Amino acid sequence: MQYAILVYESETNFNNRTDEQQKDAYWGAFSSYAKALAEAGAIAGGAALYQPHAGTTVRLRDGQRHVQDGPYADTKEQLGGFFLIDVPDLDAALDWAARCPGAADGAIEVRPFLPMTQG
């Protein structure tokens, strides 16, 4: 079964990505995690995302497109990246989520894929 491991990070963690004294530890932890997923044959994809201010939110209301710069919600933690995994069940997905470096000081959401049906 496929799951998304959604990594929610604080502003501090986003800043650690580029801070000269923090970036090696930050990226090293995620690199090790991705390597472990690959060695287990569980990874199906994933990516880090730019900081929330780089995002743009689009809504369609009454046929009109409304565009907002930045994140949709102003929250303590924002989506920083994701891993797509293929594992036997939710328990295995939760085990991988607990191993994610972002779980230590952020939040990890595990969400199963919903198969798209051909209509």
UniProtKB/TrEMBL annotation:
Name of a matching Pfam family: YCII
Domain YCII-related: 1-116
Family of this protein: Belongs to the YciI family.
UniProt xrefs under SUPFAM superfamilies: Dimeric alpha+beta barrel
Protein name: YciI family protein
InterPro entries: Dimeric_a/b-barrel, YCII
